[in-house]
Amino acid sequence: MSQTIKQFRLSAALAAIILCAAPAFAQETEDPALTALIAEKDAAMFAAFNTCDGDTVGEYVEEDLEFYHDNAGLSRGRTSIVEAVKNNVCNNFTRQLLPGTLEVWPVPGYGAIETGVHTFTNVGATEPHGIGRFLHIWHQDGDTWRIARIVSYDHGPYTPEAASPSEDERADLEEQAAAARAGMAEKSKEFMDKGGEIYVEE
Predict the structure, then answer these.
(1) Local structure of 160: helix, strand or coil
(2) Where is the DUF4440 domain (predicted)?
(3) Is 201 found in the same domain as 148?
């Protein structure tokens, strides 16, 4: 049987995503000014999201946006999110950032990574119905910041417990995050020591 060797190259940006995607709550971020900037842009983008203004939402994302959703799958392009806001979000539900969960980390030479927890509330309801985690990769071009990649995951029904983990749960999350980051840091080092290439035999 013949064998085909496939070569995969992982970008530094993807490595950064993996290292920062482990769950964590209320960690101190490295750059308060950058955190404030991204928080402002997040608020402006989702103010438009919550008021059926898909065109304005589109101004905050790159033309070649990739949106990874653990229920809906992968969608590509700015048009996809603009149409989703107009056709699926508008008059159905709104999104709220859960206070105390926003984290922002710089990506030198590119932009920033934003992570957090958000809730979703049906129009006319007084309490959220859903909760999930998100990761945004922001690209800086001069004074302009746009999201290049969105990862929306860990969706489930909203409960007060899900929104406010206990001290024991927080400790467990922090331990999991530390272990995940340590493991991925080691794998990332091994990956880079091999020249940034992985070979898989079939």
Answers:
(1) helix
(2) 38-147
(3) no
